[in-house]
Specification:
mainly alpha, two-stranded antiparallel sheet, 10 helices, 77% helix, heme binding, transport
Length: 249
């Protein structure tokens, strides 16, 4: 058991993780392209028309997975922030920084597609609904983290400040998730639940899950690509970086 832990901990070193990140990036990119292509095809050509919302409901196949990923990525950032603060590992802060832009993109997509869905369904692009407002706060948390990282010159201080901001903001995630239960909101409840199952047809559910897995693979691919760039930037004065073929060129 101890040997296995040692083997896993060796990847906490940027030098060891760098080549592994390339392999993960390549496979995740391939998986993301395939799953998203299949998911989009099913969204437009396989999933049936909803008897209440018509064709306009199809935007949920992008909106819902994007909303899921916006929250999940922030939780992963919180995990890496805790690991970085407790164990003081450099890679943890790098992973947190690498995940933030993708999380911000998915949060923006969730808000944007939600507005497009809300206009024909609610008659307005935006309402200060509990779910929408807390999701908007999540976007500000992502952007605030990115801005804070860029505003502090000292890398260690920037990493610590960013980690603390992420951990403070993580309280917003359960607010987003339970907002439709805690408050009388315009936003509809969850169509997919672990406890109560799904109110959607099986083909709609499979389409949504395939899109979610595709977005997940995309998030991993982007995080791996971005963390490799961060590693090269932060470790540029080390011997192992100077010996990399891509750096020599």
């Amino acid at each position: 058991m101890s040997n296995r832990l040692i083997n896993w901990f060796k990847f906490a070193s940027p030098a060891t993780f760098y080549p592994l990140a390339e392999k993960i990036w390549r496979w995740s990119t391939l998986i993301a392209v395939v799953l998203i292509a299949v998911g989009l095809y099913m969204s437009f050509f396989v999933a049936p028309t909803d008897y209440k919302q018509g064709e306009g409901y199809r935007i949920i196949f992008v909106h819902v997975p994007a909303a899921w990923l916006s929250m999940f990525i922030y939780l992963v950032m919180a995990f890496w922030s805790v690991v970085g603060l407790v164990y003081n590992t450099r890679l943890s802060a790098m992973m947190t920084s690498a995940l933030a832009p993708t999380g911000a993109i998915f949060t923006f997509i969730a808000l944007w597609t939600g507005a497009f869905w809300g206009k024909p369904m609610w008659g307005t692009w935006w309402v200060w609904d509990a779910r929408l407002t807390s999701e908007l706060i999540l976007l500000f948390l992502y952007l605030g983290f990115i801005a804070l990282q860029g505003a502090i010159d000292d890398t260690r201080r920037a990493d610590r400040a960013g980690a603390l901001l992420v951990l403070v903001g993580v309280v917003n995630i359960p607010i987003i998730h339970y907002s439709v239960k805690w408050w009388n909101t315009l936003h509809q409840g969850a169509s997919v639940s672990v406890s109560s199952g799904s109110s959607m047809s099986s083909i709609m559910l499979w389409t949504m899950l395939i899109m979610a897995l595709g977005f997940w693979a995309y998030s991993i691919a982007m995080a791996m690509a971005r963390v490799r760039c961060i590693i090269l930037e932060r470790e540029r004065d080390t011997t192992w970086v100077s010996e990399l073929p891509e750096v020599r060129q």
